[in-house]
Amino acid sequence: MTLRFHQLHPQFAAEASAVDLRAVRDDETLEQIRVGMDKHAVLVFRDQAFTSDEQLAFAIRLDGEIHRKTGISVLQKSRFGDEALTDVSNVGSSGEVLAPDSRRRLYGLANRLWHTDASFQDPRGRYSMLAALVVPPVAADTEFADMRTAYDTLAEETKASFEGLHVHHSIAYSRMTLGFEFSDEESDRLKGAIQPLVLNTPRTGRRSLYLASHASRILDRPVPDGRLLLRDLMEHATRPEFVYRHSWRIGDFVIWDNRATMHRARPFDDTRHRREMRRVTTLDVGHPHPSRIARAV
Ligand code: OGA
Ligand code: MN
What we know:
By secondary structure, the protein is α+β, with helices and mostly antiparallel strands.
C-alpha cells in the first residue's frame, strides 16, 4: 500500500495517512515508513490499537533489535512483564495514579527534561515508538526538537570545532540534576555511555547534534567548559522554531528517531489525571533491513 505523509512543522514531523500498523508486514510498506522516518524524523500514526505483543512485534519488523536495558528496570520491574515494554504511565501496578512521593513518579518526572531515549547505553537507541492508551482531559503534550536543523544552523567554524568531541551520557546524571537519589548499587548499574557530540546518519547522510539532559560532560574539554557548551547547545537546539508540540489523542502512535530529535514531556496535574503510555525503543545497530540487503545484491 502507499502511505502519504502530511508535514506538521516546516522542518520535520509528519502525520501518516490511515493505516493499521498491526497488519503492515510487507517490507515495501515497512520501507516506506523507514524512508518517512529518514525524511521527517517524527511520524504520527492515528487510531492504532496495538496490544503489548503487537507493538513489540511491529517494532521488531520495522527496525530489528530492541532496547531492554532501560534505566527504570534498575529501580523496578516493568508491570508489562517484559523490559522491552517501557511503562511511561503515571499509574502503579494495580492501576492507581501514582502518589506525589512515589519513587517511580519522581524518577519519571525527568522525562520533562529535554532528552533522547537510551543515549546512556551502548548501543544507543534508534527509534522510539510510543502508544497513547489513556489520555487525560487536560493537555499533557510531548515536544520534539529537530536536532538536524539545530546542527545545520550552526556556524561553519563551530561545526568544525565539534569534530571528534565525545560526550558522556548517564541517566543517573539527568535524574540527579533534579535531586533524585540513587543507591550505590543502582548508580553502579547506571554508569552510562560515551557518544559523539555530532552524529552522522549513513542512511540520510545528514548530521545532527546528539544532546540530552543525560549529557554530563564533554570528555575532551575541562568539565565546566564542557557543561557550559552543552547548556548553550541545548538552548540553541530547543528554540521555539525547531520544536513540534504533539497533543495526544487516544490511539496515537508516534515514532521518533532518537538520533535526529530530542523530546520532553510537558507538565500537567499528574497526581490527578491518568495518562497511560507504552513505549518500545530499538537499538542503533547496523541491522540490515531486508530491503537494503535486496538493494545491495
Ligand atoms: C518517552 C518520553 C514523554 C511523554 O516515552 O520516552 O519521554 O510525554 N515520553 O510521555
Ligand atoms: Mn523519552
